[in-house]
Amino acid sequence: MIRYFSLFALALVFFSCKEAKKEATKNTPPNVILIFTDDQGYQDVGAFGATDIETPHLDNMAKEGVILSSFYAAQAVCSASRAGILTGCYPNRIGIHNAFMPNATTGLNHQETTIAEMLKAKGYHTAMYGKWHLGDHPKFMPNQHGFDDYFGIPYSNDMWPLHPQQGPIFNFDPLPLYENEKVIDTLTDQSDLTTQITERSVAFIKKQKDNPFFLYVAHPQPHVPLYVSDKFKGKSKRGLYGDVIMEIDWSVGEILKTLKENNLEENTIVIFTSDNGPWLAYGNHAGSALPFREGKGTAWEGGQREPFIMKYPNKIKAGSVIDSPVMAIDILPTIAEITGASLPTLPIDGKSAWPLLSGASKESPQEAYFFYYRVNELFGVRYGPWKLYFPHTYRTMEGQPQGKDGLPGEYKMIAMEEVELYNLHTDKSETTNVAAEHPEVVQKIKQLANAMRHKLGDSLIELEGTETRQPGRVD
Asked: What is the Cβ-side half-sphere exposure of residue 86, based on CA atoms within 13 angstroms?
């Protein structure tokens, strides 16, 4: 009898603890993990059409979460794209253009609020592991923008003396590896970097398991030069590039496994996406944006439409696929709504996509999205199913000799002379210009573009905006 009573008491204690833990989780703000790859193409994940690269962890994440099939990077280049997702602003609003070179005299201004700063103000512990690329001067580095812990590189992994064009075009110094504000190494081999970033991420999750946290995992891969550890070398059917993606998928798996092992899975938002499309000049060392047109460095769909997967168990319908457009600028306000964090005091461009993600709405959070490139040039606008392009010059590898094994091919420049309009619902690959058949759509998008030009400007027509802000500058 005593034995049965003891077993009953133990079961009661276990049940009470489990219920208490559930109640505590209910009242604890969700953890947030943002996984951001570099130059990954739309088709470089199984759930998005890859047949020659195995990505079981990302595919399973998609089955348990939601896919946004019309998700756009904030811009088609490194620094600008990162500025957009971390601040909720079009990069040109905050004076961030193109990709910063080493020893840049500008960077992300301290008046801007990053996701890390927004959540830190709500008591979150924050960490960033990987590629920063928002200014490498000490005043612009991650620890100055809300991150408690940082490990990684300050800019792109090809900005080093081993660049194939070092000498004739570039003169890069050694690539530094940082731990917080200290350089702990200079890299000559990046084979273990994905593993190191993953190990740091796992350790951070375990350390902060009893506290709300924000973890930003910004993989330098699959940006060239491609590097992979021995455990994935030669594993894919798409050569070295595929091996690299498989290792990134492994990294995602390690993070998800750690959440599960520490009972954090249900109360953690995990987002996976990339900064821009594939760098097509590098041929077999570039990804695939198919079925979309072009890649990195263009406003065509292949330049900014990215794989996007979000997992938040019991809060979003598992296995959902949403085609309504969303852009990286919407991530910060979405996280703010879910966590109850306060939005930045300065105006931002993003709007919360949580009603769409949660199933409360089927509408995009924005009426239109604007595709800027270079220094404030408005290339195009997405409006419903329509994508309109204004006259501009863009680069293409079409008809050009492809790069191979880490050496780039040479782009040719194309001048678009007239407005072009595409219906993305019927023409995903943007092959048929229908501007002449839909003058009313062209007119409506021009009106939207003119309203945005008034705010942010457009250097293609020599117009300055009234709402742009300055980047941070070295004194």
From this structure: 32
**What are φ and ψ of residue 469, in 5° steps?**
-120, 160
- 466 to each of 196, 334, 447, 457, how far by Cα in Å? 44, 26, 17, 7
d(C-alpha 37, C-alpha 247), whole Å: 12
Q: Which residues contact 468 (CB under 8 A, 6 or more apart)?
A: 92, 93, 94, 95, 376, 456, 457
SS3 180: coil
| Rounded-to-integer distance, Cα 231 and Cα 9, Å | 48
Pick the catalytic residue from 57, 125, 133, 392: 133
Q: Positive or negative CA dihedral for 382, 388, 391, 397?
A: positive
133 is catalytic: yes
The tens place of each residue's pLDDT in the chain, 475 residues long, gives 545 444 444 444 444 444 444 444 457 899 999 999 999 999 999 999 999 999 999 999 999 999 999 999 999 999 999 999 999 999 999 999 999 999 999 999 999 999 999 999 999 999 999 999 999 999 999 999 999 999 999 999 999 999 999 999 999 999 999 999 999 999 999 999 999 999 999 999 999 999 999 999 999 999 999 999 999 999 999 999 999 999 999 999 999 999 999 999 999 999 999 999 999 999 999 999 999 999 999 999 999 999 999 999 999 999 999 999 999 999 999 999 999 999 999 999 999 999 999 999 999 999 999 999 999 999 999 999 999 999 999 999 999 999 999 999 999 999 999 999 999 999 999 999 999 999 999 999 999 999 999 999 999 999 999 999 999 999 8
Give, in order, the Cα–Cα distances in Å from 254 to each of 88, 311, 318: 28, 15, 20
Give 50's contacts (C-beta < 8 A, 6+ positions apart).
43, 44, 245, 288
From the list 78, 125, 163, 392, the catalytic residue is 78
DSSP 3-state of 382: strand
3-state helix, strand, coil in the chain (%, to 5): 35, 20, 45
Q: Is 78 among the catalytic positions?
A: yes
- 270-304 burial, b at 16+ Cβ within 10 Å, e below that, comes to bbbbbbbbbbbbbbebbbbbbebbbbbbbbbbbbb
